[in-house]
Each structure stands twice: as structure tokens, then as C-alpha cells.
Amino acid sequence: MTAPAPVPGPVRTRFCPSPTGLVHVGLIRTALFNWAHARHTGGTFVFRIEDTDAARDSEESYRHLLDSLRWLGLDWDEGPEIGGPNGPYRQSERHGIYADVAAKLLAAGHAYESFSTNEEVDARRLAAGQDPKLGYDNHDRHLTDAEKAAFRAEGRQPVLRLRMPDEDLVWTDLVRGEVRFAAGAVPDFVLVRGNGVPLYPFVNPVDDALMGITDVLRGEDLLPSTPRQLALYAALTDIGVASGTPRFGHLPLVTGEGTRKLSKRDPTSNLDIYRDRGFLPEGLVNYLALLGWSIAEDRDIFSPGELVEAFDITRVSANPARFDLKKAEAINATHLRALPVGEFVERVVPYLAGAGLVGQPPTAEQDRVLRAIAPLAQERMIVLSEAVGLLAFLFVDDVEIDPAAAEKQLAGADAVEVLDATVAALTDLADWSTGAIEEALKTALVEGLGRKPRQAFGPVRVAVSGRTVSPPLYESIELLGRERTLARLAAARAVAASAAG
RNA sequence: GGCCCCGUCGUCUAGCGGCCCAGGACGCCGCCCUCUCACGGCGGUAGCGAGGGUUCGAAUCCCUUCGGGGCUACCA
């Protein structure tokens, strides 16, 4: 077969999920590549909802899908809540269209009515010494009117099958190059069920054709269904429903820990967990884009804008890609650190507010503290939710001292001595600033007590922040203020004293 | 079983016949910086699945083989 004639015109891609359950990261990666390809080429990105499975689809899942794409910044030009010239964009609202196209296909002879039951097909395969797994045998292609009438008289409802061409089915895959299926390898498949309900392999290409989709980028799991769609497109083009065959690009599968396709059951496949933990949308987009694509030989950090600028579908790798949480976190952390202070504060406030630490919006004082600590916090976080544990001590009256930290740093007479010296140094400190605090503490603890900095500041840190790990001490003390600092030092001293017995 | 896809460090990848006794990133290890933790800097670890060709020359092209994966519904 010669290469099919492409759909003419500028690029039009689409994303067409079913609203069933959780939003899968592999699905999002597919959406991302379609979006990036459309944006890069100045084309159009169409969003269509394939909600034809009433049993599994849900309105909640539908809303969640829209919300997820919006959060990631994957904006669509045509689709739900936006509309467009090729709507409606929910399959559940398009039923009338399919019956009409099916009738035309039947009338033109591209499709035919088939009455064979699965049992009959298997029996014929077996009788011919063949493996029943080969499937339907194209037996009903040339039924006479009398034969059809006889079947109907038995009460049988025929399915509608597409007549597959007797030639190799070939296409040049955007990511894999030429792919070929031998003539006869794919049986005539079902377009419409006996009960009149059209099937996915039929409605999906019909909608793509009607919506003028030029480039179909989808998961590799759908590659085996492409020869059927090629045949369908040829038929649709013949009857004037399609204006050509789209280009196909089969994206590598996203795998989980092993080598298997990342399943919907795998908790790590759920987009929500990344969002809830405080991944930045641009961080996740950056990482997801790396699953099968690379921007340059020596670079892997980029913004969505830079992705669009550089994206080239023909440079997408054909290998399966494993989702690596560590790398995703590293990429996100880099984006987090690069955030301007104001923006970081804006994004972290919902997490802090959610934990009851600051108001929504924060008070002027909370905002001042947040902005001051932001640069120090940013380089210690990989996701936004970590701000809660890291910064809580700045927004409460009294800290709760972590038992393990107390055990480690407040366990003896040494700690008492250090804390006493610290109180003495800070109580009347004239200039309550980071620099003056640092100088006062070094003088009192390092020089005065003759301790190594490491040992000197441990108990102070735990007293002030409640933890052994915190933002830099002097800055923290300054932001905390004299009153709370001294109160915490006193409280910690009591703990240390009782431990010292 | 059949059809199809894939095969470079542990992971994601660069590489499209000489620039590669293979580059980057994450991870891991070490050192430096240092009030903790990070950040940052420096260094290290580790790979072309195997076998045949083609070629002056192959990670790159061809074949075979092995391995991994996907699909095999009147689901989507």
C-alpha cells in the first residue's frame, strides 16, 4: 500500500481521555506531548472527552481531568467549557453522528453486516486446523440477501464490520519510522455492536476525522490498532467524512518500578499525589517531558515555554521510560529554588495555611517573615509541602521539641551550660539582627565556653526550632524575635536540666 | 501461540559511519564550603545484550540470536 494521503492543513492534535478514575501520569505525558507539538507548530490543541462507557465514567472524574490539565498549564483551543467549531467535545453528546457514518459505510460497501457468533468462528478455525486465537475469519463478507434474511429470522442482530483491504498496511510513524502490518494480518473488525452501540475503534477515528485532527500522538499500547484505523480512514475518506489520514506517533510507554507499563493501580501513577505534595506544575511538566524526549545534550532543566520552543516530535525516543521519583524530585527542586521570592511565598501559603500556621491570606507580619525566610527555605525543599515541617517553628508561640532531637542535643549538663550562656548573651543584646546575634553567640559559646561550633549550636537550634535540622540559626533567631527566643531557651533548659537529673 | 514495538551507565537520555577507548542528568561514593540540613564547587563509580556481516573505519547500517515489553473483546 502506498503511504496514505495526509490530512491537509496546519497541525491539529488532540487529547481524548476517558473520565474513569484517577488521572494517570502516563496519560498526562501523552497530553503534554500533544500540547507541546501543537504549540510548537503553531497548531491547534483539541480536548475531547470519550465518555461512552456509562458504567465507568463519572462526572467527578471529568471535572478532575479538566482541573488537572489547567493546573499543569496545558490549555486547549477547542474542547469542554470552551467549545469550538467541531463540537460537541464529549462523545456522550455525539451519538447521532456515528449512526449516520456507519450507515454510509455500509451503503458504500466498506462495511458489512456480520452474523457469526464467537463460537461459530472458533469452530471454523478449529475445523480448518487453525488456532482460534486468530480471531474472526472474514467469513461473512459475501453473505447473500437470502442468507442475511435467514439469520434475521433466527433473531440474530448483526454487528457491522469494516472490510479490511487486501494489501499491507504501512505508515511512517512520527517516532518509530516505517511500521508495516502484512495484508490479511488484521481481521475485519467490529464497528458497531449488534445492539447498535458504536465501538471505540470506530468512534475515535470518526471524531478525529470530523475534528480535522492531523497528528495523532498516543501511547504505544495503541500501536497494534493503527492498521485498522488506517483502513477505516481510507474508507472514511472515500465516503467524504475524512479528508485524509492523520500522521501517527506512538509514544513510548511509561513504566513503573519494574519493566511493566505503569498501571492505574500503582499509587505512583496518580497525578494527585504529586500535586498534593507540592510539586510545581512547571517542575512536573519538565520531568514528564524528559520521559522520552530531551531538549539538548547537556541540559535538562527548562520552562514550559522553552519546551514548546524546542519540542520536536520526531526526536522522541522509542524506548519505554521508567518513572523515576528521585529525578522528578531533583528537577522539581531546581524549579523551586529558581522561584522569585514573591512567587514562592504565594505558592507555599496554601500549604502553610492548610496546616493552620498562617492565615489565608497571611497577616502582614507573617508575610514579612515568610519573605525573609524564603530564600533560605527554598534551597532546603524539594516540594512545597515540606515548608510545613521546616517553617512551623516561626509561626507558633511555643515549639514542640522533637523527642529524638531532645535526646540528641538536650540530654545533659553540657546543654544546660550552653543554654544558660545563650540566654545571657541574648537577653540584653542591643542590636537584634542576624549579624549581631551571630557575633554574640560565637563570643559566648565558642570563645566563652571553648566549644566547637558544632557542639555549641546544637542545643540552641533544638531549643529554638524544635529540630536538629532547620533553616540557618541566626536568621531564624532574628525572625523569631527576642521574646519567643528567650522563652524557648528557658523551656529547653528545663528539659535539659531534668535530663541531667 | 500470533502480530508488533524496543534494546547505550542502576535510571532518563546524547549519539543518526570517523569529532566516542561513548557526553549530560538523577542516584550513589569521596573531598571542599559550613551553626544543622541543604545549596554550591571539585572528583569518582558505572553502559553500547550477544554473535555474525558490510566498511579503510560501527554504539551508529544489515542479518541472526537472546532479552524486555505491548496488543491480541460485540472494553476504552
In short:
By secondary structure, this protein is mainly α. It has 20 helices and 11 strands.
**Main sheet overview:** 3 strands, antiparallel
Distance between the termini: 90 Å
Cross-sheet strand order for the largest sheet: 3-4-7
Give the overall average pLDDT: 95
Helix content: 40-55%
Shape: elongated
Q: Got a strand count?
A: 11
Low-confidence stretches: none
Query: What is the count of DSSP helices, taking H or I runs of 4+ residues?
Result: 20
Radius of gyration: 32 Å
Tell me about this structure.
- The protein has helices at about 25-40, 60-70, 95-105, 120-125, 145-155, 200-210, 225-240, 270-275, 280-290, 305-310, 325-340, 340-355, 365-380, 385-390, 405-410, 415-425, 435-450, 455-465, 475-480, 480-500; strands at about 10-15, 45, 110-115, 160, 170-175, 175-180, 190, 215-220, 245-250, 255, 320.
- Helix 16 crosses helix 17, helix 16 (about 415-425) crosses helix 18 (about 455-465) and helix 17 (about 435-450) packs across helix 19 (about 475-480).
- It starts with 11 loop residues before the first strand and ends with a helix.
- The longest helix is centred in the C-terminal third of the chain and has 19 residues, at about 480-500.
- A three-stranded antiparallel β-sheet has the order 3-4-7.
- It has about 500 residues and is mainly alpha-helical.
- The chain binds one RNA strand of 76 nucleotides through strand 6, helix 6, strand 11, helix 11 and helix 17.
Key features of this structure:
11 strands, two-stranded parallel sheet, 9% strand, RNA-binding, mainly alpha, elongated, 501 residues, three-stranded antiparallel sheet
